[in-house]
Amino acid sequence: MGSVSINTSAVMAAAMVKIAVEFIWHGPLFGKVWMRLAGLTDKLPMGMGKAHVLSLAGSVAMSYVLAYSLVFGAAYLNISGVYAGIMCGFLNWLGFIAPVTLGGVIWEGKPWKLWLLLNSSYLVSLLCMGVTLALWK
What pTM value is reported for the model? Predict the structure, then answer.
């Protein structure tokens, strides 16, 4: 079995894409709605510095795993380019993010609107990350 080469620059770029999408999504687009649905005030539960470091670490990890998923998924499905990135992002959202985040609604009593808002953000992020990774090999 051969080794798999992952482009670290593409991984970092896709992580930055995720951060940008979430900044826009949870800021100008739906920031007030998100804060209301999540029961947040102006202040984050943790400091801004710690929140940004953890968000960056999570984005890099997600991007790295998505890059591997893209390599194997695109080869298995025999697809490439933008379509491969979109399919990889969508399937990872559908198989991992959407079902796992349902726990917030099912077990924690969070509103469906919050689930939809957060999951649409994850979906758009993963689609954009998948396309970034697929085009930047």
Answer: 0.91
